[in-house]
Each structure stands twice: as structure tokens, then as C-alpha cells.
């Protein structure tokens, strides 16, 4: 999408994507119009279609990519190396801190609940996010347990579901206590007996 754009063009496109992401987090996909994006970014209709020729579907795909990157970035550097219990604790703290800070304006809920229904292209991006996230968690589970591949995958999926469930409940209630309870419960079995 960014090929052939100047540095200024890439920056403008990124500014539009970031603003559209924020609007979607606050208003939802269905309620966010191209006019809303234009107003929030002070861009003309022709400028918007210059960067997003397919209009709404292009913007939604770009927002899905942007938000997916935000979800994974917020978990670094821990997600890249979950080879010790200490790194798992650091990851868990990073996740809790991140979603506590964002509250109801979290990209994960927006991605799953809103953008995942928006288009096949956005759904594919979100599916790739979860696949990448799961793979990193599987590597981490395998590093700290003697689980086989299937058990490692099942543990990783339960951890991922704990995060997602906690985030969905956070969006519905404004409270992080569900995530604060679910995440340690999901990762607790990874703790070494001596720790």
C-alpha cells in the first residue's frame, strides 16, 4: 500500500490510519464514516481516495493492520522471548499495564468485535495476528514446560482466550479485574515449582 509514496505521503497515510483507528475504537466500525475520517484528519475526499482507492474497505484493512501491529508491539520485548518464568511475568505485567492504560479504547476488542466482521480482508489480517500471537505463546510454553506440541498449543490458546475474554469484559464494564484474574490463572501452570 505504501509503495510509490513519498515520505510525506506515507506520513499522511499513516496519520489517516491512526485517526480512523481511534474513531473506530470510540464509535465502532458501523458508526464511523469516511466523512468522519475526513473531518478528523482535515483531508479532502480526493486526498482520502488517493491513499485509499477502494475507500472504506481499504481504510478498514489498513486500520486492521495498524491495530494488529499495535497489539503485538505492546507486548514487546517479552512476547519475543518467553523462555523463562520471569519473562512470562514481565509479559503478563506489560499486557495488564497496556490494557489498564487503554481501558475501553483498546485495539484488541475493536479488532475482534468490530473489524473482524467488516470484510474478508480485515478478517484475514486479524486471523494472521492471532496466528502470530499464538505461535509466540506456543514457543514460550514449550520453553518453560515439557509439554508436547498439542498440549503447548492448547495452553497457548487458553492464555490467548484469557487475554481476549478479559479485554472484552473490560470493554463492557470498564473494569480490568477480569483480565487481572484470568491472566494469572491461565499462566499459573507455567510457573516452576521452585518459584
From TrEMBL:
Residues 10-70 form the HTH tetR-type domain. InterPro entries: Homeodomain-like_sf (IPR009057), HTH_TetR (IPR001647), Tet_transcr_reg_TetR-rel_C_sf (IPR036271), YxaF_TetR_C (IPR054156). Residues 33-52 bind DNA. It comes from the Bacteria. GO terms for molecular function: DNA binding. It holds the Pfam family TetR_C_13_2. Keywords: DNA-binding, Transcription, Transcription regulation. PROSITE patterns: HTH_TETR_2. The keyword Electron transport does not apply. PANTHER family: TRANSCRIPTIONAL REGULATORY PROTEIN. This is TetR family transcriptional regulator.
Amino acid at each position: 500500500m505504501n509503495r510509490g509514496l513519498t515520505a510525506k505521503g506515507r506520513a499522511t497515510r499513516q496519520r489517516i490510519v491512526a485517526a480512523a483507528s481511534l474513531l473506530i475504537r470510540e464509535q465502532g466500525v458501523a458508526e464511523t464514516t469516511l466523512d468522519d475520517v475526513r473531518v478528523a484528519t482535515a483531508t479532502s475526499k480526493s486526498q482520502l481516495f488517493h491513499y485509499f482507492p477502494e475507500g472504506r474497505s481499504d481504510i478498514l484493512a489498513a486500520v486492521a493492520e495498524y491495530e494488529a501491529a499495535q497489539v503485538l508491539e505492546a507486548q514487546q520485548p517479552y512476547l519475543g522471548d518467553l523462555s523463562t518464568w520471569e519473562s512470562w511475568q514481565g509479559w503478563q505485567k506489560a499486557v495488564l499495564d497496556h490494557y489498564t492504560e487503554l481501558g475501553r479504547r483498546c485495539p484488541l476488542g475493536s479488532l475482534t468485535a468490530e473489524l473482524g466482521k467488516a470484510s474478508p480482508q480485515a478478517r484475514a489480517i486479524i486471523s494472521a495476528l492471532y496466528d502470530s500471537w499464538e505461535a509466540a505463546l506456543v514457543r514460550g510454553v514449550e520453553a518453560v514446560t515439557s509439554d508436547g506440541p498439542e498440549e503447548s498449543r492448547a495452553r497457548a490458546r487458553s492464555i490467548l482466550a484469557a487475554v481476549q475474554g478479559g479485554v472484552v469484559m473490560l470493554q463492557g464494564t470498564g473494569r480490568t479485574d477480569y483480565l487481572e484474574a484470568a491472566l494469572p490463572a491461565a499462566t499459573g501452570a507455567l510457573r516452576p515449582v521452585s518459584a
